[in-house]
Amino acid sequence: MKIAAHMTLAGQPEFRLKAQMAPLSFDVDGEGALEISTGKIEAEIAAVPVMMRIPFLPPSQQVAAGSVGPFRVCIKPASATIRALGLGIEGKIGCGESACSVEGKAGGEVEVDLKGEIPGRLLKAAVEGAFEE
Questions:
Q1: From CA 43, how far away is CA 87, in angstroms rounded?
Q2: Phi, psi (rounded to 5 degrees) for 120
Q3: What percent of the chain is predicted at pLDDT more than 70?
Q4: For the chain, which has fewer Cβ within 10 Å, the N-terminal or C-terminal residue?
C-alpha cells in the first residue's frame, strides 16, 4: 500500500520579559589617626661661678665665693595623638523605580510532505490489532 501525506505546522509564540530595580543606596565610612612623638630632649648647663670683689683688694682681683650648678634638664619622650580624622560618603543610585521590558513575537511555518509504502502484512496486522481492542 502506498501512502502520501502533507501537513503544515504554523505558530506565533509571544514572549515578554520585564525587570524592575529599586534605588540602590550606599554608605562608605573611613577613619584615620595621626600620631607624632619626639625622642629624648636633654639640656645641660655647666657650673656658674659666683664671684665677689673684696674692697681692699685691687679691682682686677675677684674671689670666687662659690658656684651654682651644674644643671641638667631632661624631657622624656613626649607624644601627641590626633584622632579626629574621618570621612563619610553616602548616596543613592537611581531615583524611584527603574524598569525595562522586552516584548517579542516570533512566527514560523513548517511544511512536511510524506510519501512511502507500507507492506500489506504490516497494515493487515495493524488493522486487526486495532479492532481487537
A1: 42
A2: -60, -45
A3: 94
A4: C
